[in-house]
């Protein structure tokens, strides 16, 4: 997250918040000013995932789930579990608060449970209506109490629907994130011919007709009017904004509610099922991919018609391996189903068919293109082959030098041993030792003998003369001589000749080497043939990070100048050294995590390892009025800093760590878009009058920061401008997590925002 913290010396003036009712201001005051809560005498523990699943499945009767609100969501254990899910746990985070701690410091879970069970929950008192100056209400946000209710609803819906979603539905699901979708495209999709993405008209809002349709879809599985009415009220009050085609889904922005992802998946689930039916219908009509062999010289490859689909929340990608006519017909059915059955307006100007081979398509912030397998797994070039042969020759030379050096050392050591033994034998009758060394000497000579024999047997030139001497001109091979000798001697001679022929015959050794060489050549020819056939008959998907967009983002953020070279950011010089490094580290790690599955990941590594690293060093140098060399000498290229105890800390990934990164992990990283639009400026006001604004954080050693939006034209709705010049209160740990991008404004209690 792009965070700027600057200490200001302006006079402190506190005004009442224009969107907070007086009762909600108590959450921002010290604990001794809040009204006392009655203690909860019942010991309530949070639920595990299997326990929650068991509770929800117990409400399944006659094909539907019923009484979810009164029996499940209103349970204090479920509400406490939702509270713990909202807490962003770090490595040094304290234990999650108990139900008594939450009831005494925030709100009473027992009272909330009774209100939900008796249908007395007051939505209006939990709404935070935010607006720009001189403008009507433009954004409605939930307070912490309503967030707990929303999270408990999400938990129940996840248990009911997660196993019922299609396999190509990604986003808002455990283990089904962006990287999993990209991995599916790279490993599963074969021979794509045409593809298209479905673009929704973002000017059309999710209206009453869409809300009623969503409620009808939910009623197919859930028979609970109170439960569905709560979801409907959340949508109508704009707390849940399901405007498809927007720019904020899955990015951690504050206007995204916790229910957005799963409700979008539920709403688009009929579309997923319809698309799955079309895929199965095409697969049944088309035979499997096979190799028809009419005779030994004629091979006919058959490519079946296939449909692939990937949906990440409101982003839909459909791929076909058939003709353009099939793709046009499929696109027509997709658009008609979304338009008529789901009442969604499609942007037909952007929903167009592209050639998978000749045109790139953008999906999930990546550039996709169909290429041959040799592009993804290229063979060794002639230059690489020459370099490999040169390396092998150098390796042989080094081994020969090592062998000669070892033989020289052995000769010297042997001469010393024999000289010493000879002198001892001349001057005395024998050797007297206090310890036995026969075993060690025997092991040394055994090793030498074994190595000598191995070297002799591996050398054809040394074996040839010995073989000629032992196998040629022997009188024992004559029949008249053999008849006069004992049978045992003849048998021993035959065995000896067999061993000589087996181990010393150079002709067989040469034939064996030729066989090995021929096998290697045949394997190379076979690999070349298979590679050529695959290039002619197979296409795979190449996933690239958008280089132009990344370069533009780096330039707009101020990391580089017009020439593309790193430059300092003067606005950051007001921060502490460790905060500057954390700020850069948060941006770099987000970019590395997001684009780690791309083919040109090396380009992103260069951006982070060079541009961001040296921009950070130049910023530190400008702050301390020193040169870049002095900054590198002090902080090193790994940006080393020292904590209070004097131990080293490394927040920015080192060059070696970046070099070793790859697409090993399957994660769902948040993009950096939402962070680029926000700046936090630290106020010169360090008195701990306010509780930390992070979810259920009870610390009062906090610092006040002012939120400033950098660019209001950064593809964001005007209603999110209401956060401009608002103040957020955070403790030391959560500020650090905000710097490194692990915490977003979505993890902050909006009722703790103040106007100063």
UniProtKB/TrEMBL annotation:
Keywords, ordered alphabetically: Coiled coil
Signal peptide positions (record): none
Record domain Reverse transcriptase: where: 1-368
Coiled coil stretches, renumbered: 385-412
Listed SUPFAM superfamilies: DNA/RNA polymerases
CDD domains: RT_G2_intron (cd01651)
GO molecular function, one term: RNA-directed DNA polymerase activity
PROSITE patterns named among the record's database cross-references: RT_POL (PS50878)
Alphabetical list of Pfam families matching this protein: Intron_maturas2
One GO term (biological process): homing of group II introns
Single GO cellular component term: mitochondrion
Name this protein carries in UniProt: Reverse transcriptase domain-containing protein
Organism (species): Lactuca saligna
């Amino acid at each position: 997250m792009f965070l700027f913290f600057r200490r200001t010396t302006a006079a402190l003036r506190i005004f009442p918040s224009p969107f907070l009712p007086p009762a909600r201001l108590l959450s921002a005051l010290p604990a001794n000013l809040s009204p006392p809560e009655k203690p909860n005498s019942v010991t309530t523990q949070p639920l595990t995932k299997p326990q929650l699943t068991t509770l929800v499945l117990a409400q399944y009767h006659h094909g539907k789930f019923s009484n979810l609100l009164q029996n499940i969501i209103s349970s204090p254990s479920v509400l406490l579990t939702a509270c713990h899910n909202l807490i962003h746990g770090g490595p040094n985070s304290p234990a999650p608060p108990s139900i008594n701690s939450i009831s005494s410091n925030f709100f009473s879970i027992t009272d909330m449970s009774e209100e939900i069970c008796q249908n007395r929950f007051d939505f209006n008192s939990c709404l935070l209506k935010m607006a720009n100056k001189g403008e009507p209400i433009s954004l409605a946000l939930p307070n912490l109490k309503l967030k707990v209710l929303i999270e408990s609803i999400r938990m129940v819906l996840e248990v009911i629907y997660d196993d019922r979603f299609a396999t190509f539905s990604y986003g808002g699901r455990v283990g089904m994130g962006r990287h999993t979708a990209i991995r599916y495209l790279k490993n599963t999709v074969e021979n794509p011919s045409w593809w298209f993405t479905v673009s929704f008209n973002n000017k059309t809002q999710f209206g009453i007709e869409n809300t009623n349709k969503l409620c009808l879809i939910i009623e197919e599985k859930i028979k609970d009017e109170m439960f569905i009415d709560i979801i409907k009220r959340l949508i109508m009050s704009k707390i849940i904004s399901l405007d498809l085609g927007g720019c904020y889904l899955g990015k951690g922005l504050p206007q995204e509610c916790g229910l957005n992802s799963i409700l979008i998946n539920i709403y688009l689930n009929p579309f997923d099922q319809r698309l799955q039916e079309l895929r199965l219908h095409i697969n049944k009509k088309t035979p499997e991919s096979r190799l028809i062999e009419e005779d030994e010289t004629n091979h006919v490859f058959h490519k079946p018609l296939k449909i692939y689909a990937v949906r990440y929340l409101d982003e839909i990608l459909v791929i076909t391996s058939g003709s353009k006519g099939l793709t046009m017909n499929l696109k027509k059915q997709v658009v008609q189903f979304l338009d008529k059955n789901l009442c969604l307006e499609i942007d037909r100007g952007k929903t167009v068919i592209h050639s998978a081979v000749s045109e790139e398509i953008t999906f999930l912030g990546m550039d996709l293109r169909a290429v041959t397998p040799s592009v993804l797994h290229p063979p060794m070039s002639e230059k690489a082959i020459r370099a490999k042969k040169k390396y092998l020759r150098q390796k042989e030379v080094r081994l020969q030098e090592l062998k000669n050096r070892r033989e020289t050392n052995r000769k010297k050591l042997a001469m010393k041993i024999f000289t010493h033994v000879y002198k001892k034998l001349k001057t005395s009758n024998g050797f007297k030792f206090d310890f036995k060394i026969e075993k060690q000497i025997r092991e040394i000579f055994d090793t030498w003998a074994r190595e000598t024999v191995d070297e002799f047997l591996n050398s054809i030139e040394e074996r040839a003369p010995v073989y000629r001497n032992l196998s040629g001109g022997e009188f024992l091979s004559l029949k008249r001589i053999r008849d006069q000798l004992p049978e045992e001697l003849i048998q021993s001679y035959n065995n000896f000749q067999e061993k000589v022929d087996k181990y010393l015959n150079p002709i067989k050794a040469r034939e064996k080497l030729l066989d090995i060489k021929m096998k290697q050549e045949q394997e190379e020819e076979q690999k070349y043939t298979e590679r050529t056939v695959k290039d002619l008959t197979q296409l795979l998907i190449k996933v690239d990070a958008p280089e132009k967009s990344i370069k533009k983002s780096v330039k707009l953020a101020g990391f580089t100048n017009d020439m593309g070279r790193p430059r300092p950011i003067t606005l950051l010089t007001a921060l502490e050294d460790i905060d500057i490094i954390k700020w850069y580290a948060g941006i770099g790690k987000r970019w590395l995590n997001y684009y780690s599955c791309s083919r040109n990941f090396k380009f992103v590594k260069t951006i982070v390892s060079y541009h961001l690293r040296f921009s950070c060093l130049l910023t530190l140098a400008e702050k301390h009025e020193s040169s870049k060399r002095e900054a590198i000498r002090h902080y090193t290229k790994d940006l080393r800093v020292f904590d209070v105890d004097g131990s080293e800390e490394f927040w920015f990934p080192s060059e070696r760590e970046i070099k070793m990164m790859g697409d090993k992990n399957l994660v769902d990283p948040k993009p950096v878009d939402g962070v680029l639009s926000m700046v936090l400026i630290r106020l010169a006001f360090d008195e701990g009058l306010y509780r930390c604004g992070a979810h259920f954080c009870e610390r009062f050693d906090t610092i006040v920061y002012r939120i400033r939006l950098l660019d209001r034209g950064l593809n964001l709705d005007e209603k999110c401008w209401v956060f401009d010049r608002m103040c957020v209160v955070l403790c030391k740990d959560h500020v650090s997590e905000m710097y490194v991008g692990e915490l977003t404004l979505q993890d902050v209690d909006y009722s703790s925002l103040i106007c100063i």
